Amino acid sequence: MQKDLIKELCLTQGLIDIAGTGTASQSSTSKWSKENDAQRALSNNNFANFAFHTEKEKNPWWQVEFEKPVNPEYVVINNRKQEPFDEIASELSVIAYDDEDNKKILHLGTMYFGSEDRGCPLIIPLKDKVSLKKLRITLLKENYLHLSNIRFLVKDPLKNIKQKFFVANRQDGMGERFRALLNAMLLSEKNDCNFIFSWETKNRDFHATHEKNLIFSQGFQKNHIVERKKIEEMELYPLQGISLLFQDQAKDYDGYLVQQNNVSTILPYPYNDFNSIDYKRAFDKIGFSEEMKAAKVDAENIPLADKMIAIHIRAGDIVFGQFRWEPIFYRKVIPLFLLEKTITNTLEDGFKIVIFGQDDKFCNYLSEKYNLIYSKNLLRKNYNDSQVALFDIVLMSRCQVIIAGSSGFATLASWIGGSKRKIGYEYFPKLEDKLEAFDQFYEDKEGFLYSDDIHPLMKAFSIIQFVYKFEKRLAVYEKISYLKECIDLDNNNFYYKVFLTSLYYENNKIEEGDSYLESQLKGGQFKRLERLAKTVKWNNTTTLTHLIDSFKSAATKGSATAAIILLLDDIAMKRDVEIEFYSNIIKNKKDSASVVLINDILTMFS
Questions:
Q1: Is 262:415 a contact under the CB 8 Å cutoff?
Q2: What average pLDDT is seen over the chain?
Q3: Rounded distance, CA 411 to CA 421, Å?
Q4: Domain residue ranges in the chain
Q5: What is the mean pLDDT of residues 276-297?
Q6: CA distance 545 to 533
């Protein structure tokens, strides 16, 4: 009942819980404490007993500190749920500190209180009057301090935002674009305002993103599509940090930029209630063109078995395009060794399988070999690839389970249909099963690796992902053998060649590594190496970061070839370049072709 009271309080007064933006600490931990114990009280998880637990001591305390001062309407403190231990916290002090460390007593004395789902929590109304940078809860006696969730309810900054926009501005694949669009649609509906989005055609080789006139109705375009250039000129607040938005309410934003993550993960309560997120209803409100509507209706009317599982065999730009040289999105694709085992296990469990993919030859091969349904063979008309993509999304959404990589396409389908989605690597949770699957894939002369119906790039991708995923479990000689096979299958892939060089260094075969990489750098191939080194990923690493220790070790031992990559990585990551270190290598390798490259790089850098 009290939990409903807090929920009702948030809804009627327009409040959100921003506890998770704070950093918690406590005076001590006990044998009952969990990892990251203090922070658990701010996680909004449903704890069966307590969130954190100090040691028994005099005046134990728990505190939270925010990056900037906050002005809560209410602080809600939930007690431990197990009786009679909940009575221990009856004597507390709750003290707020502002940004100049001035303190204000919010509560002091005896109060027997419960938790939201068990009695009444300790609710401290502050009416936005107290500027709070830090809050400390102290037990006024010698004992343990153990509490459950602690909430900080503030005014919802998204209320009263009339005439502003929720904006989706992605330019990648259809799945990611539509996920961001659906988020913008749902939020605009909840806040009674408009949504806008851009739709420009890029990367058409692997993305089903035709011109907007082929995708959307004229009315939908007129009301909601804005040129990307105009959106980029707007002052937009990124909703990934929405829980901090209340700190910047004085700034007059034009709108709010929405990404493709599920609303429940990017927004605080009350938006993160799964029951209130109806992606299917929002998807049905998209104003599609007549051509796209026809594909959608066809997919909705295809008869499907009750126990139907979708397997999304994504390839596209990860296997055939630019990202095969920059292995940063490999989890979007199920590698062959897991795909093969997934299909056989699923069929043994009595499920029917419909497969989705871009490689017609491979998908038809699977269809014939295992008696599967290939989605494109269900098409009733000669659709363009955007219609096919929409057909696949809708049909996939109707399946009971979707097995895929972590792709936006499959995620979108699971949102629309409420289907359970399983990631390829997670489908077999035990490490032994994954290793067994690869051994079978690698040794079976009748299997995927040796089939002429499967593209060599898909085979190379699957092998490199096994090495990438289980690198620490493999001996160096095994990795070298696998990399050589990858290069035989995909000789234009310079990443494989740099990886192989790093393995020579790791195996202390420095001369062999130098000779191999120098031979690969002839004929203008340095540009490929430079591209790999310069590709900085979202987690502030480059494509070569996980290999860099091998190159650093070889360079320290005098390898000028290894020093090239180390120097490029220093520059890409904006580290201070140790000129003396590289100068010493140059002195000792005067006739090396690599020395010329190092000199050129240092000259450009200086």
A1: yes
A2: 85
A3: 7
A4: 2-155, 165-286, 291-432, 493-605
A5: 91
A6: 8
Phi, psi dihedral angles at 37 (to 5 degrees): -55, -55
Quickly name the fold that domain 291-432 has: Rossmann fold (3.40.50)
Q: Which CATH architecture has domain 2-155?
A: Sandwich (2.60)
pTM: 0.72
CA distance 315 to 305: 26
* Strand 122-125 relative to strand 74-79, pairing: antiparallel
N-to-C CA span, the chain:
68
Closest CA to 145 of 309, 1, 29: 29
Choice between 597 and 289, residue whose per-residue pLDDT is larger: 289
For residue 530 the two structure tokens come to: 């430079």
Contact (CB, 8 A) for 139 and 89: yes
Q: How far is residue 390's CA from residue 290's CA, in Å, rounded to a whole number?
A: 13
**Distances, alpha carbon 275 to alpha carbons 145, 193, 327, in Å:** 34, 22, 36
How far apart, in Å, are the Cα atoms of 114 and each of 17, 39, 59, 463? Answer: 19, 20, 20, 56
Which residues, in sequence order, are bridge partners of residue 402? 310, 421
Within 8 A by CB and 6+ apart from 353, the residues are 308, 309, 310, 311, 343, 346, 347, 370, 372, 373
